[in-house]
Design brief:
Blueprint lengths: L2 H27 L14 E7 L7 H11 L4 E5 H6 L1 H9 L3 E6 L10 H19 L5 E2 L8 H10 L2 E2 L4 E2 L9 H11 L5 E5 L2 H20 L3 E2 L13 H20 L2 E2 L8 E7 L18 E7 L1 H7 L1 H21 L8 E6 L2 H6 L3 E4 L2 H17 L10 E6 H8 L5
Parallel strand pairs: 1-2, 1-7, 1-8, 2-3, 4-5, 6-7, 11-12
Antiparallel strand pairs: 9-10, 10-11, 12-14, 13-14
C-alpha cells in the first residue's frame, strides 16, 4: 500500500472513530448527557412510546392510559404527526408529553452527516407546529448516536432521552404476554421504559398495555411523563459510579446464583441458598450456630435502599420479607433452610424488623466494612459505615414474624 493510501485510510479511521465510535460509546452506550432514569425513592415509572402516531394502534394505547389514569411521553415522527394531527391533539389534551423522534426513521449510523445534524431540529420544529407547544425532548431512532446527531440536538436546544428498560415489543415471535411478563419482572421505581405505539411493536404494546398498567397500579406505581419523573437528570459521573456498582452486583449475582425475591427487580432483597459459611458464631444466649447449616442469605437491593432512605426502607421491608417467607415455604430448594441471614453494615436497620445481630470476627468485619464504605461512596453517601454484623433469624422465627397467618 502506498504512503498516500495509508494516510487516507488512517484519516478515514480517525474520522469514524471521532464521529461514530466514540460518541456511540459515550452517549449511546453510557448515556452521558442523556436522561435515562429517575430515582428509586418513589413508585413511579415513565412509559415512553416511539414511532407514532399511528391511527391503527395509537388510539388503543391512549385508551389504555386514560382508563388507568397514566400519562406518558410520545416520541413522534414528523410526517406521521403532520398526517394525524387529531391524535397529537388528543395526546396533548390528555396530559401526555410530546417529544421528537425523527423526520425519517433511519439509524443514526446510516445517516449522512448533514442529515444527522439537521434531523433533530427539523423534527422538533415540525412536531411543535402540529402540537402547538414547544418540543424539548428528543430520542433518535434506535437510540443511535453519532457526533452529528449529538451536535444536532445541542444546536436545536433539545435534551436527549434514552431508556433504562427496553420492552422489546418489536421482536418477531414475542407475544404480548411474554413482553408484559418481562417488563413486570424488570421494572423498578424510576425506570424509563421504551415501547412503541406504531408498527409491529405498536400492535404488541396495544395488546399488553391494559394488563401492564393494571399490574403497575396494583404494585403502587404512578405512570408519568419523563419530565415529571423524580430525579430524572442527564447522566454524569455520579450516575456512572452507581451503574458500575450495579454491574458488579449483577456479576456477583450471576456467579453466586443470587436472585431477586419474588423474581421482581423492585424487591428490596436478593437471596440465595447457601451452607452457613461462618464458623465459631453463636446466638446471644451462647447456643452455637453450626457452620454448614442450610440457610438463606439475603442481600439488599442497594440503589433501592439508598434512594428510599433508612426510614422508608424499614417501612418497605416487611412486605418484601413476606414475599420471601412465601418462597421459603413454596420453593423446593429452600425447604431445608434453617436460617435466614445477612452479613452487612445494616444491623441497626435490620434489628428494627426483628433480626438478631451477632458480632463478626475482626478479620471479616474489617474487609466487609471496607466494601461497605466503597458502596457508600459510589452511591453518594458519607463514608465510615457501621461495623458489619451477622443479622440472623431462625427459620421458625422468620416464618412466625413474616409467614402467612393461620386461618
Amino acid at each position: 500500500m502506498t504512503g498516500p493510501a495509508r494516510r487516507w485510510l488512517g484519516a478515514l479511521a480517525l474520522g469514524v472513530l471521532g464521529t461514530v465510535l466514540v460518541p456511540a460509546a459515550l452517549v449511546q452506550g453510557l448515556n452521558l448527557g442523556l436522561i435515562r432514569e429517575g430515582r428509586r425513592a418513589k413508585r413511579e415509572v415513565a412509559l415512553t412510546f416511539d414511532d407514532g402516531p399511528d391511527p391503527e394502534t395509537t388510539p388503543q394505547v391512549l385508551d389504555a392510559l386514560k382508563a388507568a389514569g397514566g400519562r406518558a411521553t410520545f416520541f413522534l415522527l414528523a410526517d406521521r404527526a403532520e398526517a394525524h394531527p387529531a391524535l397529537v391533539g388528543r395526546m396533548r389534551a390528555e396530559g401526555h408529553e410530546i417529544g421528537a423522534h425523527a423526520v425519517r426513521h433511519v439509524h443514526g449510523w446510516r445517516r449522512a452527516p448533514l442529515d444527522a445534524l439537521r434531523d433533530p431540529g427539523e423534527a422538533a420544529g415540525r412536531i411543535a407546529a402540529v402540537a402547538g407547544v414547544p418540543v424539548r425532548l428528543h430520542r433518535p431512532p434506535h437510540g443511535a448516536y453519532t457526533l452529528f446527531t449529538l451536535w444536532g440536538q445541542r444546536r436545536a436546544g433539545l435534551q436527549g432521552v434514552h431508556w433504562s428498560l427496553e420492552g422489546q415489543d418489536w421482536q418477531a415471535g414475542r407475544t404480548p404476554g411474554q413482553v408484559r411478563a418481562r417488563l413486570e419482572r424488570r421494572i423498578v421505581p424510576g425506570a424509563v421504559v421504551v415501547l412503541h405505539d406504531a408498527g409491529p411493536g405498536g400492535r404488541t404494546t396495544a395488546a399488553l398495555l391494559p394488563e401492564l398498567l393494571a399490574h403497575l397500579k396494583a404494585r403502587g406505581y404512578t405512570v408519568k411523563p419523563v419530565s415529571d419523573l423524580d430525579g430524572a437528570a442527564p447522566v454524569g459521573r455520579a450516575a456512572l459510579k452507581r451503574r458500575a456498582i450495579l454491574a458488579l452486583d449483577a456479576a456477583y449475582d450471576r456467579v453466586e446464583r443470587v436472585r431477586m425475591v419474588g423474581d421482581r427487580a423492585d424487591n428490596l432483597f436478593r437471596v440465595n441458598s447457601v451452607a452457613f459459611p461462618h464458623a465459631g458464631l453463636a446466638w446471644p444466649d451462647g447456643t452455637p450456630i453450626p457452620a454448614g447449616t442450610p440457610a438463606l442469605e439475603f442481600h439488599v437491593n442497594n440503589p433501592q435502599l439508598v434512594d428510599l432512605g433508612p426510614r422508608a426502607a424499614v417501612r418497605a421491608a416487611p412486605a418484601d420479607f413476606r414475599e420471601l417467607a412465601r418462597e421459603l415455604l413454596d420453593r423446593p430448594e429452600y425447604r431445608e433452610a434453617q436460617l435466614v441471614f445477612c452479613v452487612s453494615s445494616l444491623g441497626p436497620l435490620l434489628s428494627l424488623v426483628g433480626f438478631t445481630n451477632v458480632p463478626l470476627p475482626p478479620g471479616p468485619g474489617r474487609r466487609l466494612r471496607g466494601w461497605a464504605n466503597v458502596l457508600r461512596r459510589a452511591y453518594g453517601s458519607a463514608p465510615d459505615a457501621p461495623a458489619p454484623v451477622l443479622s440472623v433469624l431462625s427459620r421458625e422465627a422468620f416464618l412466625r414474624r413474616y409467614g402467612p397467618r393461620p386461618g
